Amino acid sequence: MAAGPAIEMWSKQSGTAESPDGRQRILTMQKAFTVTLAASDPLEVCYSAAGLPLVNDLYPGTLFVICRSLTPQRVSPIMAVVTASYSGEIGPGEGIESSPIDNEVNISWRNATTDEAIDEDWNGKPIVTKNGEPIEGITERISDQVATIDRNFASINMYALSAYLRATNSDEFLGWPAGTGRLMDYQANKTFTNGIGGFWKVSATLQFREPYRTTPDKAWYKRVRHEGYLVRDTAGDEPHIAWDEKTKTPVTKPILLTEDGTRETDPDNAYWIEFQTLNSLPFSTLGLIS
Fold first, then answer.
1. Neighbours of 148 (CB within 10 A)
2. What pLDDT is stored for residue 110 in this prediction?
3. Considering the entire predicted model, what is its pTM?
């Protein structure tokens, strides 16, 4: 199938201006694009993506800096990152080399503390009364680790970045395993030098959550106790209204359910279900630390 459109990202963007002989000024630049494709497609399909620069295309704002190579890398079965490398000579009127996009990365850490509702104790037992009824309103103070990364970029794609606000990391990032990190906030301010050569000052905030009674890949999953008004007599049966065994009437409160939807009578054996509400994307393609 045809590859999806190429979307420029904060990915591996870098640049170097140098003058080996004191007369010529050579500029090298790098951009990166994400491209979607089918899992069965060969990697070279991404070269056909709409919006991807072609070899020998000019770098924006220059006259002789051209695309020398396109290097694709598959980062998931349905996504590839294509790196475009540019180089060429620049003149005095071309101010791109004045943009400090090849600067150091600044990373700072802090804690973010919130009071979160909890439904089980440290040993994994549900928080219930002696009669098995859930106790509501109990909270625990949770401290997440928050990283702020400051870096400059030649260009950014705000639309592409919006997807990362609804995703967790699918790769290890800043030492945290996949599934534990979220991009919570970013700020981008455009700066110009002598009216030309604009670059972006970017500040990105990422929050990392320690898995609480779950695996790292599910650190941001929604987690609830398995209970309801419907029950199955045995696994695979059609669910029906649960009846109160004492009053012989339909239950007025949710009852505990096992993994297969049958009735659980022991509150200590409550089963918990988790739901994925966020996408999973490779944070390395943001280019924040590379």
1. 16
2. 94
3. 0.62
